[in-house]
């Protein structure tokens, strides 16, 4: 009869193999997804798209990179965010940085 | 070496039998531990794969989008605006984009109406995204009517459905001709939603944006670099409600581990006392408990990670769907391409396996260096 240590070791080796297989499977799926990805890239280039269609509930979640500077506060400046996605995603990168020659920051300060 | 291995096997044997004596408690701990690793690994794998996907796909998006702002809001580009931009050195090509949102009261969903710059559909025809096809039960050559904001009903024929493979970027799209778009939204002639620019020298993009902002103070240039960085940080954990929910789980597990680390049960103390009384050395007791911590944490890590991989890349992260979907009616069905960041996996391993394996050792060391008689008496 197999000793408990051998059984545990066997299970851990099996787990380790399954862990390694995740990486093999990832490589396989990546190779298989090449055509689909090319299709997405082609469509983005053809339609001049700027955003993923992940959150279609509001304009600033559908196109977060194109959102108005204060669109989350569209009702009034202190309005609380009312779409759940607003809690999930961060503001557009252009609004977060501060620095000389920064167009978005300049735009932001101009809007204040 | 052989002797050392044999000793470790005996220690593991003893550890497993000892764990089996408190089966329910240890299986419960293993389950909670594996679920925690599963949640953390799922979020890590999902967000990393999504960031990678966005970076690759959106690399083909326009170099600069110029919006016009009026009273802090995005406004239409009036005629004459493009001519002013055309005078800026470095601008290679510009195209007015026509797009907008439409709320469909039938499905209570928002669609993105758009005019493709290349190969637009014929007048009276539309091309729809796959999610819209599903939600409205559409097929090629079906007719569909939308009531415009002016109250008029516009009927279109579905000329085609965008490929399923592109759903991540096209789920809610409705492509139509410029003539139909302008008629549907009552768009004034010569006006555009925004302008897509391409710049001759990619090194000059930022300079062109600065010149644009100077020449047209009401313009808001959005660089591709900013779009990519928005998506690089889109699921930033700081803002994530997922992390907020997970932090409760992490805290609960922390309390569990702390409870285990800060004190031993009377039964465990008695066991250590007996082991020491029958001749086990302090080092052996610590090694035994080290194996216990390692076996539990390693098993939990492997089970949690493998389950997370299958969940994210074979079941489309279906457990996250209610969170990601929010209030959106249209949600794209997509299969993320797996991109596993080795460093993230190593970090996850380090922060899940090592602290637990170490946490169980401290109280054991305290108990193991105490006199067996005192330990047994509690």
UniProtKB/TrEMBL annotation, chain B:
Entry keyword Transmembrane: yes
Coiled coil: none
GO biological process: lipoprotein localization to outer membrane
GO cellular component, one term: plasma membrane protein complex
Domain called ABC3 transporter permease C-terminal: residue spans: 265-370
Assigned keywords, A-Z: Cell membrane, Membrane, Transmembrane, Transmembrane helix
Keyword Aminoacyl-tRNA synthetase assigned: no
Compartment(s) of residence: Cell membrane
Protein name: ABC3 transporter permease C-terminal domain-containing protein
Matches recorded under InterPro entries: ABC3_permease_C, Lipoprotein-release_system
Transmembrane segment boundaries: 27-46, 240-258, 294-320, 340-362
Sequence similarity: Belongs to the ABC-4 integral membrane protein family. LolC/E subfamily.
């Amino acid at each position: 009869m197999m000793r408990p240590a051998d059984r545990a070791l066997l299970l851990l080796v099996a787990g380790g193999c399954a862990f390694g297989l995740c990486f093999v499977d990832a490589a396989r799926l990546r190779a298989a997804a090449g055509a689909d990805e090319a299709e997405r890239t082609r469509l983005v280039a053809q339609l001049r798209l700027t955003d993923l269609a992940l959150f279609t509930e509001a304009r600033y979640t559908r196109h977060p990179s194109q959102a108005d500077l204060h669109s989350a506060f569209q009702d009034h400046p202190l309005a609380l965010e009312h779409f759940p996605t607003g809690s999930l995603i961060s503001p557009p990168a252009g609004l977060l940085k501060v620095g000389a020659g920064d167009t978005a920051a300049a735009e932001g300060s101009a809007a204040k | 070496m052989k002797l050392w291995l044999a000793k470790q096997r005996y220690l593991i044997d003893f550890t497993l039998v000892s764990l089996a004596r408190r089966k329910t408690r240890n299986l419960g701990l293993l389950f909670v531990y594996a679920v925690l690793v599963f949640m953390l690994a799922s979020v890590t794998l999902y967000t990393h794969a999504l960031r990678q996907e966005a970076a690759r796909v959106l690399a083909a998006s326009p170099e600069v989008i110029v919006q016009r702002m009026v009273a802090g809001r995005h406004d239409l580009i009036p005629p004459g605006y493009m001519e002013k931009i055309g005078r800026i050195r470095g601008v290679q090509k510009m195209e007015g984009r026509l797009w907008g949102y439409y709320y469909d009261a039938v499905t209570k969903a928002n669609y993105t109406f758009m005019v493709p710059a290349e190969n637009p559909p014929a007048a009276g025809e539309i091309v729809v995204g796959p999610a819209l096809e599903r939600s409205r039960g559409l097929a090629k050559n079906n007719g569909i009517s939308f009531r415009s904001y002016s109250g008029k009903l516009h009927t279109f024929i579905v000329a085609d459905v965008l490929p399923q493979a592109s759903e991540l970027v096209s789920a809610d799209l409705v492509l139509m001709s410029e003539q139909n778009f302008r008629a549907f939204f009552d768009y004034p002639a010569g006006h555009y939603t925004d302008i897509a620019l391409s710049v001759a020298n990619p090194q000059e993009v930022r300079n062109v944006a600065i010149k644009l902002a100077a020449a047209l103070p009401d313009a808001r240039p959005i660089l591709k670099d900013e779009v990519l960085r928005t998506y690089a940080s889109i699921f930033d954990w700081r803002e994530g409600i997922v992390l907020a929910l997970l932090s409760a789980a992490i805290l609960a597990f922390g309390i569990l581990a702390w409870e285990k680390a800060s004190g031993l049960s009377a039964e465990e103390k008695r066991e250590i006392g007996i082991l020491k009384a029958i001749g086990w050395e302090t080092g052996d007791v610590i090694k035994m408990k080290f194996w216990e911590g390692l076996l539990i944490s390693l098993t939990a890590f492997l089970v949690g990670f493998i389950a997370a991989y299958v969940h994210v890349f074979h079941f489309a992260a279906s457990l996250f769907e209610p969170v990601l979907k929010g209030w959106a009616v249209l949600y794209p069905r997509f299969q993320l391409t797996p991109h596993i960041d080795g460093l993230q996996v190593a970090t996850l391993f380090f922060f899940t396996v090592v602290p637990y394996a170490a946490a169980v050792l401290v109280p054991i060391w305290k108990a193991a260096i105490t006199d067996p008689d005192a330990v047994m008496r509690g």
